[in-house]
Design brief:
homodimer, alpha/beta, Methane Monooxygenase Hydroxylase, Chain G, domain 1, Endonuclease, Chain A, 2 domains, seven-stranded mixed sheet, 6 helices, elongated, disordered N terminus, MIT domain-containing protein 1 (chains A, B)
């Protein structure tokens, strides 16, 4: 990852830049990385005066990272329901584009995806399909954070695939950061333009095509769905 | 197939209906099926007068089927080049939708696809992707004829998969007919609204995603391509 090649100063400078540009998810990520490096440095420092300076800086960045966390949290809690769309069992016409493509626009610079289950092949495929749509519709996209649970059966395969996807996104100048939270249950997609998409089943509400080579293999509008609910919320955006 | 359940009279009545509605590919198909049944009947008939009536009918339908064949042939030969788009090696942004989606509209009732190679998994997937686009864009689509070569290594698998795709299209009220022509080389897509799309490599000019889970897995605009040429021709439409 690029972070490994940067020192604390560069990381924190970039964090401040992102913060000022309203890219607060990326800023939070960078503050946390920077704080970690400063913590390691302070441990090696014997000069008391220098130690104090380090601690002051660390506290300042921790406060800023906490503020961002609060802001994202409030952003998610407040807001009003824009639309509710129940998806019926076996219904079609529910591709990600059809359901929420209209909210993915040039104002989206950052995206937070909370999706507990990313370890089966079809789940990786759904993630890629979702990212394809983000990259295609959001031309100023810079940062995507994916929060998911560790695959306890094949953690290596999961981290390999996610790393491949991260590297692919990096080629397109989008930083993808993967965070594992093993208590995660709820699914949501938070867009930095102020929209939040909550789907009961997260990204995974499509039935497999049967037989395999049927319409729906690539275009998810043709896929039959599992019953679930889609709620779309609107809040003030991150920057406002 | 539905044809198996119909008698010669019903088939030929339907052929005439399709012919009058300008759905000439389907009409040609039905004439040929009807002629075959009449030929079998005439062989079993001992009454000379009745035999003569049969032969007259057969000749009449053969003439009509030949006229249609000529008309399709001329349609393909005449015409003017609308656009030529060279696809460079490793270029992207060349999904079927991006290349020729604008010509797939409500005026397309029938499509002829000549694609010699349909037996590898990715080739079946390309066919399904192409059909998804047809069904989505052409809301009056009734008939698709696919001409291809027999898979000499695994003909059963090929016919099973194509039969599954045919059954799936039938559910959407589109008759898909598969014709095997083992001398086929050229690739083309003929639309009944007068457009003809000729791609040097047919449907198969996309490189596989590498690694598998990368952008391009579903959205072919992200796929790197093989070098090929796309020519789009415009002729008078079938009905005119």
């Amino acid at each position: 990852m690029f972070v490994g090649k940067m020192n604390a100063k560069d990381i924190l400078m970039r964090a401040v830049q992102c913060d000022q540009a309203g890219r607060i998810l990326e800023a939070q990520h960078l503050y946390q990385d920077g704080i970690q490096i400063l913590m390691d440095l302070v441990g090696d420092e014997s000069d008391v005066a220098k130690k104090k300076v380090f601690y002051e800086r660390i506290k300042e960045y921790i406060d800023r990272a906490e503020q961002i966390k609060d802001r994202v949290q409030k952003h998610v809690i407040r807001g009003e329901l824009v639309t509710n769309k129940p998806i019926d069992d076996n219904s079609t016409g529910n591709s990600y584009q059809s359901l929420f493509g209209q909210y993915l626009n040039a104002d989206v610079k950052e995206v937070l995806l909370e999706e507990p289950y990313l370890y089966e092949k079809y789940q990786f495929q759904n993630l890629v399909t979702f990212l394809e749509l983000l990259v295609k519709n959001c031309r100023h996209l810079k940062y995507v954070r994916v929060v998911t649970k560790t695959d306890t059966k094949a953690p290596e395969n999961q981290s390999n695939v996610l790393e491949q996807i991260r590297a692919d996104m990096a080629k397109r100048n989008v930083t993808l950061s993967i965070k594992f939270e093993d208590t995660l249950h709820d699914r949501k997609i938070v867009l930095s333009n102020g929209y939040i998409i909550k789907i009961g089943r997260g990204l995974h509400f499509f039935k497999a095509t049967n037989p395999l080579y049927s319409l729906g293999l690539c275009d998810y509008d043709f896929r039959k769905c599992l019953q679930t609910d889609v709620d779309i919320w609107r809040t003030r955006n991150f920057i406002a």
